[in-house]
Amino acid sequence: MNYNFSNFFHFTRNAEGCTPFMYAVKGRAYTAAMTLLDTVKRVSITKDSQDMDKANMLGMLYPTGSSLDNSPLHVLCCNDTCSFTWTGAEHINQVSAR
Q1: How far apart are CA 53 and CA 25, in angstroms?
Q2: Are residues 63 and 19 in contact, defined by beta-carbon separation less than 8 angstroms?
Q3: What's the burial of 74, exposed, middle or buried (CB within 10 Å: 0-12/13-18/19+)?
Q4: pTM greater than 0.85
Q5: Which CA distances in Å does 86 have to 34, 62, 92, 95?
Q6: Taking the domains of the chain in order of start, what are their residue ranges?
Q7: pLDDT in tens, 2-30
Q8: Is 80 exposed, middle or buried (0-12, 13-18, 19+ CB in 10 A)?
């Protein structure tokens, strides 16, 4: 069976308009995002040559007209990478003491 993953990635979006890749990045599911990125790269290779159809690839990752707040690059830059952990009522710093 030959599935057309390109159509799946182009037309699949959640209620916020995120593609599967955008949603994985937004949810910090980076392993899933890398798997989706690899899949998008594979299905973006044209049949005639080994060149990537970059417009098609970008359409599956971050389509034209998508919200700027959902840009994978923006989300990666703004994700909170807090070095603290919540332990009940106390907020403990995980940075080692000198």
Answers
A1: 22
A2: yes
A3: middle
A4: no
A5: 28, 34, 7, 14
A6: 5-93
A7: 455 555 555 677 788 888 899 999 888 88
A8: exposed
